[in-house]
Specification:
Elements lengths: L12 H4 L46 H26 L7 H4 L2 H17 L1 E4 L11 E4 L6 E9 L4 E4 L15 E11 L2 E13 L1
Antiparallel strand pairs: 1-4, 2-3, 3-5, 5-6
Length: 203
Amino acid sequence: MGAGSGKRVAGATLAAFSLVALAACGTDGDAPEAKGPAPAASSSAAPRPAETESGSPSSGSDPENLAKKEILAVYNHFRQAQAKAYAQGSIDGTDVQKYATADAFGSVKLDLMSLKKAGNVGRGAPVTHAGVEDVSMNLDAKIPKAKIKDCLDVSGWTVVNQKTGKTLASPEGQLKRYVNDVSLEKWGEKWLVLTDTAQSRGC
């Protein structure tokens, strides 16, 4: 992804993995879509599971703050599952579908198809810099919604050719840290990542 491309790309992987022509200009109607439960209104929240997904919030906890922590935890788990899928070249045995659906899930599957076709896999993982202050929410909507604005660092996320074991060089001008926009919805008791969109500006 060039710094001046001005194009919306399908997800954070496109900046790191543009060498395998993941490229297009965004998720299109042909992207595979995850099947999951129908959305249901809910505003309950759990503590942030950056370390764990279990635990009981204290009675004095702020519901909005707890929701933000839960949202960030889901996002972090999605990133971890995404990196694992690219490293092994398959979504099997990962939790991608547990944390993502719709365009976000479809983009991961398309990226994996491109990696496989090129004989490559991913190595390392992206580093997120989103915090509670980077989360906006509408918990009163029929289907609770949230948005995360992240500064994603993909300098340690590389593409490796499976046959030679060599790391592919990054294209000239490729951003290593860039603004990334993520949208989520709460379906039943679960927050899920719906879209994962890299922007063409650094951070």
